[in-house]
Amino acid sequence: GESVGLHLPTLSVQEGDNSIINCAYSNSASDYFIWYKQESGKGPQFIIDIRSNMDKRQGQRVTVLLNKTVKHLSLQIAATQPGDSAVYFCAENPAWGANSKLTFGKGITLSVRP
Amino acid sequence: ETGVTQSPTHLIKTRGQQVTLRCSSQSGHNTVSWYQQALGQGPQFIFQYYREEENGRGNFPPRFSGLQFPNYSSELNVNALELDDSALYLCASSLGQSAFFGQGTRLTVV
What is the DSSP string of chain B? Predict the structure, then answer.
């Protein structure tokens, strides 16, 4: 069936370095993508989103890139900080207007070394 | 903080029992979705409520049911609990494309 998945289960980076978290999706009809951060014992926290008619969107210290040709999504975190340590999920919404019926990947753990 | 609150935060139930989880959505959000997150997995969509009506359902059996009230708060009910129902249950409210999650209810079935 259709799924959203992440390439690597864990990522360890040095504090101050840039982090890149990758995600592959298989539903070519997906129209909207979101990155969430989940800290231990908490619910997922919205980071940034992107619609399928865009290929790049920037936020504060984060950038999301979308490559529809290869169905690939990435999250770039600049100057990674210890507070960025968490599990990161990419999620897809099947269609704009589908009102947040999200399909999540399994998640990748980001560990920031001091 | 997202303004989405869930209760209780933790719950232990025995197999075969029934459970009700509650969610208060963010002010002004008319849509509430429920997700189940097993340990080490991403959240899985259970169902969604929009203006008190079910508006889509994931691959969950009928013993998972819900309600949405006029103030847009919501309940998730699970009957005949099974051990595999042990998970973090997340509520998300939305007014469009982006969903904002509560902190979840950790359900343990023994």
Answer: --S-EEE-SEEEE-TT--EEEEEEPPTT--EEEEEEE-TTS--EEEEEEETTEEEEE-S--TTEEEEE-TTS-EEEEE-S--GGG-EEEEEEEESSS--EE---EEEEE-
Q: Indicate yes or no: CB of A100 within 8 angstroms of CB of B92.
A: yes
Which of B98, B100, B103 has the highest number of chain A CBs within 10 A, making it the mutation to test binding with A?
A: B98
Which of B91, B97, B103, B106 has the most A C-beta neighbours within 10 Å, making it the best mutation to test the interface with A? B97
Q: Which residues of A touch B92 (CB under 8 A)?
A: 43, 100, 102
Give Dmax (Cα) for chain A: 42
Quote the minimal CA–CA distance from A104 to chain B in Å.
6
Q: What is the pLDDT of residue A72?
A: 93
What does the pLDDT read at residue A99?
61
Integer Cα distance of A59 and A26 in angstroms? 25
Per-residue pLDDT tens listing for chain A (114 residues): 334 554 448 899 999 999 999 999 878 888 889 999 999 889 999 999 999 999 999 999 999 999 999 999 999 999 999 999 999 999 998 765 556 688 898 799 999 999
